[in-house]
Amino acid sequence: VLTNGNEIFNNARKGKYAVGAFNINDLEWTRGILAAAQETNTPILVQTSMGAAKYMGGYELCLHLVQDTIKSMGITVPVVMHLDHGNYEAAKECIEVGYNSVMFDGHDLPFDENLEKTKEIVKLAHAKGMSVEAEVGSIGGTEDGITGAGELADVEEAKTLAATGVDYLAVGIGNIHGVYPENWQGLNFDRLQELAAEISTPLVLHGGSGIPKEQIVKAISMGISKVNVNTELQLSFAKATREYIEAGHDQDVNAKGYDPRKLLAPGTKAITDTTKERIEWFGTPSI
Ligand code: G3H
Ligand code: ZN
């Protein structure tokens, strides 16, 4: 059942748990992630980056893929279809197309411009009953070819952005996209505490792959209500696929191990397993 994120994430903030937001890349990713939500009977957010949507053939196709997969798999848990790290044009397009939720990521704009554009997106999205995520500070690392050093969210700016009526707010607290470097300093809990004390909007932790479980659990107890996970699913998928090939199954002519439906099955199952593990870490309660 597709829905916006308002109730799901407000409940999460109040209940001190998080709901996972998982990035999709294709049918296997979509099926793998939705299966995890259904098997655990928990709500979930499925998101497309601009790059993934381009790869798959556009936002409309992505929305239909998720809608039709929900139908064909008989998914009954709430699912939020969300645009991840959208620029202004992408956010507007996804609102037009009928996503349930969009992130307008204006962190690299001058703050006043980020604020103005966030306000516009909030107005457009709320008029159609959709949720909005904004970002303040920045998430380090690389995603979709965009690299940033990472900058802690300024508390005053975060308060100002939250006051626009955004439904969730992504905050830079030392988190990084992609694989964390060996010398990573960990999450900045002091800053998270300052932000959470001033802002009641559900807070979002990006770069959820590779952060030790204890730090994620602690951040959730302090006000993080949405955790984004992308790279971890890619690593799981790649590992399972590699093992299948290294075991020589793809060469097994009798079993037709080269059939993509067989070749991609272990990776798809790995996506489901990793998603289920994260749902457990995040403490998302069953419905
Ligand atoms: O927006 C997506 C997430 O922040 C994913 O980060 O690839 O490090 O898990 P990740
Ligand atoms: Zn992100």
UniProtKB/TrEMBL annotation:
Keywords per UniProt: Lyase, Metal-binding, Zinc
Binding locations of dihydroxyacetone phosphate: G178, G207, G208, S209, N228, V229, N230, T231
List of residues binding Zn(2+) 2: D105, E135
Pathway: Carbohydrate degradation
Record: active site: D84 (proton donor)
InterPro entries attached to this UniProt entry: Aldolase_TIM (IPR013785), Class_II_FBP_aldolase (IPR050246), FBA_II (IPR000771), Fruc_bis_ald_class-2 (IPR011289)
Binding-site residues, Zn(2+) 1: H85, H177, H206
Cofactor binding summary note: Binds 2 Zn(2+) ions per subunit. One is catalytic and the other provides a structural contribution.
Any Gene Ontology biological process: fructose 1,6-bisphosphate metabolic process
Gene Ontology molecular function: fructose-bisphosphate aldolase activity; zinc ion binding
Cofactor: Zn(2+)
Short name of one Pfam family: F_bP_aldolase
Name this polypeptide is given: Fructose-1,6-bisphosphate aldolase, class II
